[in-house]
Amino acid sequence: MNVMEKENVRFFARAEGRVQGVGFRFFVQQNALELGLCGWVRNMEDGSVTMEVQGQAEAVEALWNRIWQGNGYIRVSGLVTEEREAADEQNFVIRY
């Protein structure tokens, strides 16, 4: 394992609030790619959105901050995160 891999972290997260029907998955994907992160994001039947995000810890923290900030349409009322084992991924995708 090289030094860069050791610095990577991976988190599962569940966002609640106004996060469906407002472009939230695309917002997360765009910001994750800008920050050099990989993983996935998916709408859930209960109205929440779940995701797994992997990359450098500072970039993951920056993504959480952007998610909390939202935009004119997105309003996150809760974001629960849980650390996970790193995976072999190269991209950030929207799952359906």
TrEMBL record:
This is acylphosphatase. It holds the Pfam family Acylphosphatase. SUPFAM superfamilies: Acylphosphatase/BLUF domain-like. Keywords: Hydrolase. It catalyses: an acyl phosphate + H2O = a carboxylate + phosphate + H(+). It comes from the Bacteria. The active site is at residues 25, 43. Belongs to the acylphosphatase family. Residues 10-96 form the Acylphosphatase-like domain. Its EC number is 3.6.1.7. Transmembrane segments: none annotated. It comes from Selenomonas sputigena (strain ATCC 35185 / DSM 20758 / CCUG 44933 / VPI D19B-28). GO terms for molecular function: acylphosphatase activity.
